[in-house]
């Protein structure tokens, strides 16, 4: 058991090292200037691309630049501004409610603990991890999006399909300072090479250490892993 766990850990560290070399610069792909703006952009990024969110947030943040403004916004105007990101009614409602809570309970600042962050409407662990890592430089957990989910499974580092359980597995295998590095690099690699339907194993730098190389996965499993 011990040697299996350490082999997994070694594989995880080797994958991380190679992906860091391949993607030396891996900044957050959402545009923002403050922790509140990053929280809002991350809420908007659910079921939407970062590129699309980045086309919406300049006008949104010009009109409502901070938690106070967003808390007091006319919700129908908010809905109009975020409409093209999808699920816009729910997103606008959550953004406003989260900003109201930030104003009432947290003195106008985004809170820093996982417990407080996830008490905000629309903020689950994934959003909390992104906000904490990029706005505060603190890795509270491993961000698990659709790419991290699929690739971690293909790497044989988890057998789970639920993000919270995948996150627990990854937190045991990776050093805390690299938790967000891991997620960002996997997103890059998932988009560029190891995509959901047709992974490009022939041109993948991980081909010699990836247990799924040239193997693929049952269609049903891939479909499940491709959901957020
Ligand atoms: S070898 Fe294939 S399955 Fe493994 S990470 Fe690379 S592209 Fe994905």
TrEMBL record:
Entry keywords, A to Z: 4Fe-4S, DNA damage, DNA repair, DNA-binding, Endonuclease, Glycosidase, Hydrolase, Iron, Iron-sulfur, Lyase, Metal-binding, Nuclease
Note on how the cofactor is bound: Binds 1 [4Fe-4S] cluster.
Gene3D superfamilies with a match to the protein in the record: Helix-hairpin-Helix base-excision DNA repair enzymes (C-terminal), Hypothetical protein, domain 2
CDD domains per record: ENDO3c (cd00056)
Cofactor: [4Fe-4S] cluster
EC number: 4.2.99.18
Catalytic activity: 2'-deoxyribonucleotide-(2'-deoxyribose 5'-phosphate)-2'-deoxyribonucleotide-DNA = a 3'-end 2'-deoxyribonucleotide-(2,3-dehydro-2,3-deoxyribose 5'-phosphate)-DNA + a 5'-end 5'-phospho-2'-deoxyribonucleoside-DNA + H(+)
Binding site for [4Fe-4S] cluster: 194, 201, 204, 210
InterPro entries referenced in this protein's UniProt entry, alphabetically: DNA_glycosylase, Endonuclease3_FeS-loop_motif, HhH-GPD_domain, HhH_base_excis_C, HhH_motif, Nth
Domain of life: Bacteria
GO molecular function, one term: DNA binding
Residue ranges occupied by any HhH-GPD domain in the UniProt entry: 44-192
GO biological process: base-excision repair, AP site formation
UniProt xrefs under Pfam families: HHH, HhH-GPD
Family recorded in the similarity comment: Belongs to the Nth/MutY family.
Function: DNA repair enzyme that has both DNA N-glycosylase activity and AP-lyase activity. The DNA N-glycosylase activity releases various damaged pyrimidines from DNA by cleaving the N-glycosidic bond, leaving an AP (apurinic/apyrimidinic) site. The AP-lyase activity cleaves the phosphodiester bond 3' to the AP site by a beta-elimination, leaving a 3'-terminal unsaturated sugar and a product with a terminal 5'-phosphate.
Protein name per UniProt: Endonuclease III
Organism listed in the record: Leptolyngbya boryana NIES-2135
